[in-house]
């Protein structure tokens, strides 16, 4: 309480101790203290008894009584764990520090009302930077550099950085920034490691002291850093860029298509310089510490946190239907569950996409497992897996599915699974990507309910409530698609707040308990955007306990 640090105090001490009591390292909750100061605070907090106030552990399914004789229980989890996002600032997250909100609101103000900060492009990405980039591109043998030089002198150099560049719709339509950003933002190497472009919008790990320091590192990355993507040999980063074709992006002119490779490099430099200059001048060192912490929670430590939630709160689950599971997470799940569950991957598993649907089944309880092959009907490889099995003498099919963004393939997937199910029951965990509001471009949740009921299926909840959300996320203004950004005051209106996730089942089963969770603690907070530092997915985790009558062994004999 006597410390000048704004993070220190009784409330902050509790925040530091509670995650420690749950086995989590808590230093990320303080941005002003040195590790030694945080450690001293922890010592004082523990010795004063604050640790006794740590939140008790909660476990799913614990409050459900044992079923009566002749009835078996099946505890099911369905969770889209979500692919790792390369940009730690792309979506609003719930963060314990008020400084996070201040930073994101300052970016919002900069984009919407830049005022005097709306300076010329060449005041940030100066002529000397431009000339050095041009020299390196000439040395690399890139063509159409004279056209790029003309476009720079006649147009881009004099544009205003916000109104004339960041908010320019044509730059977005032509993909002149978003395309090279997607390719070079975070490069997955054949070694399993990642290479990061020096930029604000990724998890670049090294400190950046000034705009000049950033530019030197940016140039080395683009033109000197060798990367090996597939084990086929090293390449320089700039060689990964692709020509932007007018046939695919009609807004691109013939001249822009011809010079699209060098033009992308220049405009990517402008984009990175604008954001870097803003952060360095308005957020000091704080934003780099914040980025490091978010990347730790939602990127580098995300998979281990997913395992931690599943193996603590949901350790009693018999069946886990997971979607958008990355390759590394598959390996971790296989190791963590090797003694208790069988891990089922689809035969169409896509290592390249690294976003697959999988199923985990408790060993000894579920037997005779084999995949039910269902040809893809528009969805991507690995999005659907279905298996038949035996449980307590009953034939049961389990399925896990990840729908397309607008949910338009969900109906077809559900029909195909029902048609291919062998005689017996069906339990289907899915990210259906259904929506609360009706629209011609998205799949409405009540239309989905009509379909699954017509097919003889029920959901974990007796009635589908369009406001029983399982997602609540919204884009910030610190990402390239500004038309999709939401102000801090309009997260509910413009965010993705929808009822997307379901556990469906046939009449053989009865749901006796159902839960949503966006905290990892068997709790759903309605007005909280997620992911958070403790909950690493933008989809809520669903759990349900199903009861069903089984056939005794003598009946089979």
Explain what the structure shows.
- The chain has 557 residues and is of the alpha+beta class.
- Helices cover 34% and strands 17% of the residues.
- Strands 7-8-6-1-16-15 form a six-stranded mixed β-sheet, covered by helices on one side.
- A hairpin with a 7-residue loop joins strand 4 and strand 5.
- The longest helix is centred in the middle third of the chain and has 23 residues.
- The N and C termini lie far apart (72 Å).
- The N terminus and C terminus are likely disordered.
Question: Could you outline the blueprint of secondary structure elements for this entry?
Answer:
Blueprint: H1 10-21, H2 35-47, E1 71-80, H3 98-112, H4 127-139, H5 145-154, H6 161-166, H7 169-173, H8 178-184, E2 186-188, E3 194-196, H9 211-223, E4 226-227, E5 235-236, H10 254-258, H11 260-282, H12 286-300, H13 302-312, E6 319-325, H14 327-336, E7 341-344, E8 356-362, E9 366-371, E10 384-391, E11 394-402, H15 410-420, E12 425-431, H16 445-454, E13 458-459, H17 491-494, E14 501-505, E15 510-517, E16 541-549, H18 553-556
Parallel strand pairs: 1-6, 11-12
Antiparallel strand pairs: 1-16, 2-3, 4-5, 6-8, 7-8, 9-10, 10-11, 12-14, 13-14, 15-16
Helix pairs in contact: 1-2, 9-11, 13-14
């Amino acid at each position: 309480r006597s410390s000048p640090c704004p993070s220190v105090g009784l409330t902050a001490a509790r925040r530091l101790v509670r995650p420690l009591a749950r086995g989590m390292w808590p230093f990320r909750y303080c941005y002003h203290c040195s590790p030694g100061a945080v450690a001293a605070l922890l010592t004082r907090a523990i010795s004063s008894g604050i640790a006794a106030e740590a939140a008790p552990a909660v476990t799913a399914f614990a409050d459900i009584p044992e079923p009566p004789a002749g009835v078996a229980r099946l505890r099911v989890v369905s969770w889209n764990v979500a692919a790792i996002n390369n940009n730690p600032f792309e979506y609003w997250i719930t963060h314990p520090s008020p400084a996070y909100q201040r930073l994101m609101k300052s970016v919002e103000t900069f984009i919407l009302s830049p005022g005097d900060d709306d300076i010329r492009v060449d005041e940030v990405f100066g002529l000397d930077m431009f000339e050095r980039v041009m020299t390196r591109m000439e040395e690399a043998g890139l063509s159409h550099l004279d056209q790029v030089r003309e476009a720079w002198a006649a147009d881009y150099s004099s544009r205003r950085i916000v109104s004339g560049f960041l908010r320019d719709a044509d730059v977005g339509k032509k993909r002149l920034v978003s395309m090279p950003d997607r390719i070079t933002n975070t490069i997955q190497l054949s070694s399993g490691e990642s290479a990061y472009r020096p930029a604000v919008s990724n998890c670049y790990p090294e400190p950046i002291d000034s705009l000049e320091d950033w530019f030197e590192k940016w140039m080395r990355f683009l033109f000197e850093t060798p990367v090996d993507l597939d084990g086929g040999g090293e390449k320089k980063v700039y060689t990964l860029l692709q020509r932007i074709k007018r046939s695919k992006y009609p807004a691109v002119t013939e001249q822009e298509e011809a010079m699209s490779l060098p033009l992308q490099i220049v405009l990517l430099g402008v984009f990175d310089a604008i954001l870097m200059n803003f952060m360095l001048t308005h957020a000091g060192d704080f934003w780099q510490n914040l980025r490091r912490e978010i990347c730790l929670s939602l990127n580098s430590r995300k998979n281990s946190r997913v395992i931690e939630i599943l193996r603590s709160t949901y350790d009693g689950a018999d069946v886990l239907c997971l979607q958008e599971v990355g390759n590394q997470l598959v390996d971790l799940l296989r190791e963590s569950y090797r003694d208790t569950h069988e891990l089922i991957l689809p035969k169409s598993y896509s290592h390249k996409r690294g976003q697959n649907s999988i199923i985990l089944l408790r060993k000894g309880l579920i037997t005779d497992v084999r995949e039910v092959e269902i040809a893809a009907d528009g969805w991507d490889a690995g999005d659907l897996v279905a298996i038949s099995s035996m449980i307590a003498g009953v034939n049961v099919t389990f399925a896990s599915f990840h729908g397309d963004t607008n949910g338009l393939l969900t109906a077809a997937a559900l029909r195909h699974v029902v048609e291919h199910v062998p005689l017996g029951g069906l339990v289907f965990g899915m990210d259906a990507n259904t929506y609360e509001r009706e629209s011609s471009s998205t799949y409405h949740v009540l239309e989905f309910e009509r379909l699954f009921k017509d097919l003889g299926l029920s959901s974990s909840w007796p009635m589908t409530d369009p406001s029983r959300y399982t997602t609540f996320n919204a884009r910030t203004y610190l990402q390239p698609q500004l038309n999709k950004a939401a102000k801090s005051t309009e997260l509910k209106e413009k965010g993705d707040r929808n009822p997307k996730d379901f556990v469906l089942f046939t009449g053989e089963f009865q749901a006796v308990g159902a839960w949503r969770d966006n905290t990892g603690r068997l709790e759903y907070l309605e007005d909280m955007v997620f992911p958070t530092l403790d909950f690493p997915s933008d989809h809520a985790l669903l759990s349900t306990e199903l009861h069903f009558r089984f056939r005794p062994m003598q009946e089979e004999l």
